[in-house]
Amino acid sequence: MGSSNRKKAEKKKDFQKPKLKVGKGKVKPDSFTDTSFKSKAIVINKQLTEDAPDAIDRFKHYFSLAGSRSDTQRRDALANLTSQLSTTPPFNPVGTHTLLNKVLPLMTDISKSVRSQLLKLLQALPADEVAPHVEKVILYIRGAMTHITQDIKDDGLNYMEWLLDVAGDSVVSGAGCWVKPLKDFTSVLGWTVRSTVPTPGKGGWTSAPRTTFGAKKHGQAFPRQMLVLSKFLAHGFKAESPRPWVSEDWLGGFCRVPTNPDPYGYLGLFKPPRDEDGEIYRNREDRQDVFHRRFGDAIIIGVDAAKKEGGQAGRAAATLDKVLSEGMGDYEINPRTDDDNDGLWTGYIM
Amino acid sequence: MGRTALEKTEADLVTLQYKIRRDPQAYEKEFLELWNQYESTRDQFLAAPVTSESNVLISYRELVDLIAHVADSSLLTKVPTVYPEYTAGFADGLKDTLTKHHAVLESDLREKIVTSLVLLRRKDVVDSGYLLTTLIPILVSTPSKSLRHLLFTKILSDLRSSNTKHINHKLNRTVQNALFTLVTSDRTSSKGLWAVKLTREMWRRQLWTDAKPVAIMKEACLSDNEKVMVGGVRFFLGSDQEREEMQDESSDEETPDIKQVKHQIGINKKSKKKKKALDKAVDKVKRAQKKKNAPNPLNFSALHLLHDPQGFSEALFSKHLHGKSRLALESKLQVLQLITRLVGLHQLTLLSLYSWFTKHLTPRQQSVTTFLACLAQATHELVPPDVLEVLIQKIANEFVSEASAAEVASAGLNAIREICARQPLAMTDTLLQDLVQYIKSKDKGVSMAARGLRSLYREQAAEMLQKKDRGKKATMDLKSGEQRQKKFGEQAVGGIEGIELLAKWKEQERKRKRAEKGLPEGDDENDEEEEEEDDGWEVASNESSDSGEWIRVSDSEDEEEPIAKKQKRDSEDPEDEEDAAQELEALSKLATTQILTPADLAKLRELQLEANVDKALGRKKRKHDPQTRHFDEGLTAEQIEAPARLRKDTKEERVAKAMEGKGERSEHKSTQAIRKSKKEAEGKSTTNQEKARKKNFMMTLGKAKSKQKRSLVDTKNALKNHISRSKSGGRRRNGVSK
Questions:
Q1: pTM, entire model
Q2: Is ipTM beyond 0.85?
């Protein structure tokens, strides 16, 4: 029929091949746009200056690039910053506080190279300058440790390890830096939930998670998590050597300018009210106390289960067990806690 | 960075949410990690709510969303899990964040927190009271328009949903109390506007119908803030109408056409889905019918539920009208409308109001017709006539004169008529006679207005009119002493409406029965006893349709003709007249001498209805007949201006009226073509005839050829089959499946 012929021709038109001819050059496609232009002269607004931007400007440039959208740029910026920090004396025109503010959010970066470069940068930071910012740093480390992606979780442990190396004692005595990380540890290790108790019927005593959600890599991270936890606990349970009182202390107690920033921060005057999790646990007894109350049983059960697994996990569990027995060995449920006040007044007529 | 970094994570969160929903117990560990992640993100966020990194905000938002979704996971499986234990403080955390930082929060995050709270409410993790006490304070304090809108819709939908199954009195009381304090605590602030909006919406949907919302609105009316005040006033003026409209809207909700659904099932493939659809449709229709037959819920109007209207109107008057008030004229008028409405409806005494009117009653006053309407509204039987007399005199002087424009004069006359209809004593006879002279005006509006005034006084106090204006009936009534002007404060003796109809009917029935029995008309006594025996309850079973006697109802016609006719007939036999008087006496005794049975009452209702129908049939009902309007309804400026609009419509208007509802005829097409396209647009198919005509010729060829080649036997069989088939109702057996 007539119409169908026409339609056929129409359809054919779409698939016709252009004829190629020798020596004629390729036919340009329909959508080709001619972008060539001619000009008599090229004008450059600003001549290149002889002297490149100074060191501070360059630092700031890379500093801003640390928040770039591209992975490689972020990594390179971090690498550059690291190299500048590792000179002697370290070159840091913006200060540790600003630098940390900028780079800490990168702890949960999706790119592995960025994260490992970040670790190097952090390690290049001077230890005494990190200590005042522990409470802020631990926020981000906790975020990384509990991240849903296993890789980031592992790197979170690296950051935790770094922080413990750098400022171990101020970590465990900071506000919200004892109970909250412990909670994270136990949840990451899976020691809070009843599922560690083997369900009858399924049998077995392995503590590897049963769900498939990220379980593949979890097994490898397990011993490492325990090792970092043991390190953390070791810092927390470290026996303090009391400094002998000298007569200068009496005067210094009220005359001398405090040496550390935010000396009265523990009072929490201008901060949101803290709950038990966010509280400061200043000395060993306090830490032992809250540890025993909230985590002791769960961790002991977890350690026992992990020991049975043997291998790396078992070894790590043994380390952890040793730390626990050393740290908590001298712990006795002391009657100092406020809970016992209830009994104190019984029998009195108020 | 944030975007790319989160793409993968987001997908993971979605799968995790899905898995947790499927098997909450198995994913407890993941949930705990997530929970800790949430806590650390929240800490990061709270450390710097304003300057947080964008990816912190994004991950916080996503975590909030996820946790809100899985917070009730243990409820699904009935297995105890850790979810409720951990998420116990979740709602509190969200509430805390929202209340403290709502002004600086990023908008997406803010919205997510609000919706998550609502989600928790839907999952019954928190109760409505908690949600509303969180959201309402933010609603009134936030500077963000989008957030206000979101909160308003959420609050409203929550209130609605918690009132659907049964009215949640406790919640309503809390919310109403909160709104009440919102309005009363700071009268100068515009925060009360939200209380007004919420209350109005709830009233419109008939979820709040008691006195408390009215009390809230009452307080809003007394607010110092003009917006709040106008909102409250508007509520009283328009809410009931709004509510009715809403009800109408909901009642004529789309009910599916069962016929069409059935038809489609007959044609299309039969499937369970289709059957379900049919069942649903049938169910819906049944429900709609049930709803239609259900008794109307008692709805008191807001004006009637008002507590202490006297005090309220006095407060309104002294606050917004009297003395110095800086209100715009429009809002002033609305307040005035409300006050006068209250005065008229509850028959309040507010004497200073009338003297206040004096200065506004000039033609130069802006929107003076509204003032006139308000004045008429504020008039009732218990207003002292001497107060009104001055005002009427002023209206007459200012508006009604030969020099003034026709519209002005007619408006003035109409206003006077409306006032006098409510308080006839306010008129002096000289003024009345003067005004009635305007019947002779050349302008139709003016003469009609004057005519209205005359007919009003023919009924009310004919002696005030000149003799020539009284009309025949009024003159007769005056002579017989039937018409008498009511004194100030005199109340009409109440009776049962339509009782005379019933008595009349009873009388007729008795006569009919006696005629059947062949008794003479005379002896009533023994007959009445008989009547007692077989009358009574069986009345209802009597056929009511054959009692189609025409019953004359006293009508308030001002036209001469029907009255004249009636009188002519009356004068034909004077005995009848006497009878009528006696009868009337007897009739009025009916209610006091007999006990009305339910059957009697039913009959009474029927008779009343019939009488109304007769009345409607007897004469064309006028649209703006002032006499048929109820005094409770209130008066608008249009009714005062009405006759000014007597002018015929312009041509365009008439054409538009004629084209109304006739459909579009943009291109030149035959009626049939239009019909066909309409059918097509409705999704209906063509007729079989049409299909046959459209069928491709080539497709018909084969059958035609084979028909020609058939043997005689085949042809015979085919014909035979055709006949037997047509006898049994066609191939489809008339729709019955084989």
A1: 0.67
A2: no
